[in-house]
Amino acid sequence: MSRLQGTIAVAQSPAADNALYAALKKDLQDYLSSRSAIEHISTLSLTISFRGHVKPINLAVGTTKYGGGRPVTPSNLFQTGSNTKAFTSALILQLEAAHVLSIDDTLGKWLPQYPAWRAITIRQLLDMTSGIPTYDLTDQANHEYGDNPRMKSTPAELVAYVYPKMKTPGAQFEYSNTGYILAQMIIAKASREHSYEADLHRLIAANHLDNTFYEPYFYPPVITRRLVSGYYVNTDPPVTEKLIGTDTSGYSLGWAQAAGGMVSTPEDLTRWVRALFEGNVLEPKQKSELLSLVSLKTAQPVSHTSLSDPAAFGLGVFQITDPKLGLFWGYQGSTIGYRATYAYFPRSGLILCVFTNSQTTHDKNKINEELIPALYATLRKFGKP
């Protein structure tokens, strides 16, 4: 048994079948053992949440650093990347419910300093059909961040990497972090506090997410002490060469902000996911808008995904239809050192959430393809939803 396999921590273990518990643990250990060197990961942290008053299953395997460190526990923090986007969308939709704005308002109304984009709507920013490219894939952004990974980019500076470039709005789905930085700027202009950060902290507190945090650049020591090391090993272009193989946990998250700057635990993210899909975070009209889908293939509205059109995007949430898993909502958020994945199954209410500590290439990233289906199959084998 390897050192990674032998390190395991458990919190709030439910009174569940010991055989199920052992099988889930084995799924994590097998994945970590087989994929640790390939993906440059030292840990996996898992929460499985069930609908109702059943306590979640929390497991963490591995260590806080690649090749060593302390054993990881379920209370350790990870960067959650683009899972932040659903929070940003919720803040916009709450402003709409309060009659402050409409998601069909244009950038010309709220951010007139970008006249080239004046006809683009807030809805198009949030559902990734704006035609605005993502700033983080530009050579300039990668070069500057590689030279100074502790830089404090402002939202306007992030947008400037791509302004005034654009494709035809509504013509295709194209993943763009820029849209969520623009949404952050709209929230700061439209909200009572005139602060995205203050509004996000209010939303976190309102949903009792005691282990979820947001800072635009750097976190204080009380939080960073709980953060596992994260590693940038992504050689998909554009590559930030100077950061390859480094521990990114101390770098600035100013490059991500409203598009991906939060840190959390898997248990807290499952709590948020359940509140978002099943709770009262949003009014019914706004929840319907959150879940309104555009096909990744066509960028056209679809009522639901299917095996022939398997992926669609709402306002900060994906819906997938998978041959092994069926229909579910989910996201894999990624930063330059972490991946945070959840899958929510609306029929049963099951939520699977896995965090790990590297950003690797697209081809080497097998959390969605291998680990989530393995965990799901184990649950089904033991008669769980």
Report low-confidence residues grouped into runs of 5 or more: 1-16
Q: Structural class of the secondary structure composition?
A: alpha+beta
Number of separate strands: 16
Please work out how many helical segments DSSP would assign.
13
**Whole-number average pLDDT?**
95
Report the helical percentage: 25-40%
- Main sheet properties: 11 strands, antiparallel
Rounded to an integer, what's the Rg over CA atoms?
Answer: 20 Å
Element-by-element helix/strand order:
HEHEEEEHHHHHHHEHEEHHEEEEEEEEH
The portion of residues forming beta strands comes to 15-25%
CATH architecture of one domain: 3-Layer(aba) Sandwich
Report the principal-axis shape: globular
CATH topology of one domain: Beta-lactamase
CATH top level assignment of one domain: Alpha Beta
At the fourth CATH level, what is the homologous superfamily of one domain?
DD-peptidase/beta-lactamase superfamily
- The rounded distance between the terminal residues' Cα atoms is 31 Å
Write structural notes for this entry:
The protein contains 13 helices and 16 strands. With 385 residues, the chain is an alpha+beta fold. It has a domain at 82-257: DD-peptidase/beta-lactamase superfamily (Beta-lactamase), CATH 3.40.710.10. Helix 2 (18-39) packs antiparallel against helix 13 (367-381), helix 3 (84-97) packs parallel to helix 8 (177-190) and helix 3 packs antiparallel against helix 12 (284-290).
